[in-house]
Amino acid sequence: MHGERKKKLDDPLDDFSCRVVEVEGVGKRVYVTGAGPAVVLMPEMPGISPDVARFARWIRDAGFSVYVPSLFGVDGAYPLAEAAGTVVRRACVSSEFRAFAGGGTSPVVAWLRGLARVAHAERGGAGVGAVGLCFTGNFALSMTLEPAVVAPVVNHPSLPLDDPAGLELGEEDAVAVAERVRRDGLKVLAYRFEGDRWCTGRRFAAYRALLGEAFDGRVLPAGAANPDPPPFFREVVGCAHSVVTAHLVDTAGHPTVRARDEIIAFLAERLSPPAESSA
To answer: Which residue, among 261, 260, 271, 265, has the nearest Cα to 52 in the 3D structure?
Structure first.
């Protein structure tokens, strides 16, 4: 039954172009769609799910080019609970990620900064948006050490997994990020559900301590989450977590849809070139 359901609900991603992007000799698959200023949308566990692809299409349809890198999992796969024993475990031991406290900034962020440079060179505009989700949530903040990144969105960041108040940032990077945010007047938009055990209020408090008023952390009631998410989120995540993907309720005026629209408005404000004066 699971196999039949998975086959039915996988996303072929056939409205994206897929290519390999190399940064300092390291190549990764990237799915690209749309036109306009670039947004790097990083997947959540367990990969580029149909819900992540749906979010990418919403961003695209708002007038942006969306670059979705393949960082783990099976591209387009419907999130089944079995991924906990394969995708998550592999990511946690991978040298590219720092899933636990004390590891500092994940090395894959350097590649993601390079992807942002490539995207900006290809699409132009005022800069690049970086949107992280869950396992990649904090990567959007870490990416601000690339000057092209001007619109970071940190969604329910789950790393480090063993420290509810941790930020998955090395000390030097934390200082540099705070300085970049202050110097260039960046704003950092963030979302979580109340009661999320993977992204707690302590973590948002740590972001505010680092970034001050530049950190705009928004908290949705747990009761607003989709009560019937895919099996991975229902059986493994086990709480309201993914605001604009698996736990979004696609109904006009719903809190999760408002969050989606706020993110798109934030990207538009930060990435659209200033209007030319008519004088």
So the answer is: 260
